[in-house]
Amino acid sequence: MPTRPLTMLCLASYEKGAEFMREAKRQGWRVYLVTSESIRDAAWPRESLDDVFLMPDDNQKWRLQDVILGVSYLARTHRIDRIVALDDFDVETAAALREHLRIPGMGETTGRYFRDKLAMRAKAREHGVPVPPFTAVFNDEVVGEYLAEAPGPWLVKPRSEASTIGIKRVSAPEEVWAALEKLGDRRSYHLLEKFIPGDVYHVDSIVSERQVVFAAASKYARPPIEVMHDGDVFATRIVEHDSDEERELLEFNRRVLHAMGLVRGASHTEFIRAHADGTFYFLETSARVGGANIVELVEAATGVNLWAEWAKLECAEPADSYRPPQARRDYAGLIISLARQARPDLSAYNDPEIAWRLDKDFHAGLIVKSASYDRITHLLDDYLARFRADFFTRHPVPERPTC
Predict the structure, then answer these.
(1) Fewer CB in a 10 Å sphere around the end CB: N or C, the chain?
(2) For residue 228, what is the DSSP state?
(3) What DSSP assignment string belongs to 86-149?
(4) Tens digit of pLDDT for each residue in 76-88?
(5) Is residue 399 part of a domain?
(6) Which CATH number do you get for residue 170?
(7) Are residues 92 and 179 in the same domain?
(8) Largest alpha-carbon pair distance within the chain?
(9) The whole model's pTM is what?
């Protein structure tokens, strides 16, 4: 190991990853942050940062060439040992920087499997992982054949957005063609997929040397696409331990991450279980921790902070020396809502199982934890109804995610 302090360069076009940066500093690394000019005054963990470098941005969007030139200039006087993308939108940028500067880690080819929904579906199908019927939309004849073979409704999906941003549901072939026509030159950056009604799950993982060394399986109260586009309170909870559901999800997750080629890092992967026949299908994966306070959900149930463990993994020297902590096997449920009130009053929510409260304007949110799956299920169902009455309001779907 070098005698000089090693250097971690963190990319964050959104305010995320404070605990990652704190842990990297605790591990004895220099920590640099590259972020957007528009969020320079966010609550970054400045006590753990050796320096902050700002990128000019338009709605937090960076020009890749600007980043490459800026970081290359920085590299003249600062040795960079690791580059980490803290947000989904930074994964491709980090991969391109690693390729350009020849820094170890995920390159552009593998990075596509964690950002490009068309690439990840094709790779999953190649490895025998069930996925909803889908097609690229480059060629009219191919699209027409797909529409004839896969009955609707369908989803027109951006290939490289995050969350459910930009997804359009269509029910008739003429709607598909109209949607593709409206996309114009952006058409090739989308795919077409059969909509499968079902329950949506997520598995949040730490991968070390291609092995899933930690994973927690959870189930959304309603699919995120319905919450985002129809309007509702967001909620998710840890699934019952040692159930067939948990065993199937954890094995499915292992197969997906192996197929995508993740060597080390954190991942948030989503699956849907079809109402029609109970089959699990792979929806999408990522090379980062889950958003929407899922990190806090997992920590409440297991005691494992995914940001901190990811940082320990990245800082491990040698790489195979990382060991995950012993995780608890409790249960937790997370609920978050847009609120009509600037500072919602949650004082009426006072059950002893409440472990965390969200502190964010025009949002209401909390986490409950217990050793009892039934207790968490009861509380979350009760709170969903109460949140809808006490706080819930709708906002237009944003162009890019806000959490």
Answers:
(1) N
(2) I
(3) -SGGGHHHHHHHHHHHT-SS--HHHHHTTT-HHHHHHHHHHTT-----EEE-S-HHHHHHHHHH
(4) 999 999 999 999 9
(5) no
(6) 3.30.1490.20
(7) no
(8) 65
(9) 0.94
